[in-house]
Amino acid sequence: MFNDISKDDWGLVAYNIDLDELNSGTYTSEEVLAMVLKHAKDLSETQANAEISDVVLTVPWYWDMNWKQMLIDSAELAGLRVVSLIPENVGAAVAYGVDRVDETDHYVLFINLGASDLELTFIRYFATEKGGKKVENIEVLLEDGE
């Protein structure tokens, strides 16, 4: 599948990939990631029976702006517009709190035991009134990783 790794005209890493007789070539990291994102987009569109153009992506806490930009570029190549990049634990916090509306503030510690890092995020959930309706809010109090 991966024959060798080289550098393209701009000094970026390029992978020589032979998937089959019709799909082979030299691809940058952005292009390889774009293929993965495009496949996920296609699967999601089939499942939802709708076109998907916007995406929110989670990233490790330690990613710098270069890595984040590479992800945004890859998403654009896949036909996706990145609405937001959020830390992985904040994504977990949103998923946990999406259907909750509690009467009192509560606090949750999210621990991400990743393959190569440990990330801790301390979240406060609290409700406010908006238009006569209670709305759950999320506040990130602490985010730290090793």
Uncertain regions spanning at least 5 consecutive residues:
none
In CATH terms, the superfamily of the largest domain is ATPase, nucleotide binding domain
Order of helical and strand elements: EEEHEHEHEEE
What does the average pLDDT come to? Answer: 85
Domain module count? 2
Structural class by sheet pairing and helices: alpha+beta
What's the CATH architecture name of the largest domain? 2-Layer Sandwich
Question: Roughly what percent helix?
Answer: 25-40%
How are the strands ordered across the major sheet? 1-2-3
Could you tell me the number of beta strands? 8
Biggest beta-sheet profile:
3 strands, antiparallel
How many H/I helical runs? 3
Q: Into which percentage range does the β-strand content fall? A: 35-45%
> If you consult CATH, what is the topology of the largest domain?
Nucleotidyltransferase, domain 5
Q: How far is it from the N-terminal to the C-terminal residue, by CA?
A: 34 Å
Give the overall silhouette: elongated
CATH class of the largest domain: Alpha Beta
Computed over alpha carbons, the radius of gyration is 20 Å
